[in-house]
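anyone seen this seq b4? input:
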Amino acid sequence: MRPIIQTETLVWDVGTLSYIPMTQPGGGSGGGGDASAANQATEIARLTSLLAELELKANLNETQPVSLATAPTTPVTGTFWQATQPVSAAALPLPSGASTETALAAASAKLPATLGQKASTASMSVVLASDQPSVPVSMAAASAIFKGRASAFRTPGRAGTTGQKIMSLHNATGSPVTVTVNRVFIDLLQTVVKAVTVAPPVIRLWKVTVLPTNGTALTKNKIGGSGASSSSVTVLGDASADGTGSGTTLTATLPAGAILSQEFAPRILTAVGQEAADRIEWLGETTVTLGALEGVVVFLDYVLATQNPVTDMWLAGMDWSEN
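predicted toks r here
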């Protein structure tokens, strides 16, 4: 059914926006002549306005399609956000546990201040995993810091019954260098005829771990290397000058069995004035390495005073390098 609006003189069809004249009683369609027609015209105008208003409100309550297919391009101006935005974090708070200047300074203080090789006490420790495979290491030949030679004075025998230490070389505790003994040489001038039943001393090169004492400090002559000899390396002899024994006998503790090389000294059976000993040299084809608190001593091993009379003269010397 289509909606209608009825007034005194009209019935308005809202669906078709047209009016239907009302039939008056007695068969007329409006009665009243011109007055009736005027009233209808007024009603039509009023209803037309009312319906137009109703139609407008109805259209506003509906979703209206909008087409921009032919809309012109509208320029837009103003400030736009660039692809990369500058960010300032100068005043942002650090999250919990973040590094601070104080923490970084404390960590930096634990690192070496300079680059380069350091002693063990100034180096950082490195721990290898327990399953770390073998790491190949290639080492270039180390150049010696110091290559030295020292010779004892012409040293008289001491007779006695406990032997005689005539020369020592020692590398002290905490030494920064490693000493390599390259050669040891000994010679002997004999002055006394020895009976066949009197054995000559046994000359022994002994390795020691206790610092020798007494005797006379010998000059460490440089024969090569890039620097000076370490103060940790000491060389002692048992003579203070040629033919003069030291005021205090060179003393060294000899560990049992620590003999590196040895041989009998020669002897003369008749006093014909010949020097019967050839120069004895050890370590010509090998070397002895001395770490901290290690040394070597040339020891004349005998038990009879007649085996090493005070008129016999001994010569001794050593070559070594420090790295």
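DSSP finds two helices and 18 strands in the chain. The longest strand covers residues 179-189. kinda curious what u guys think
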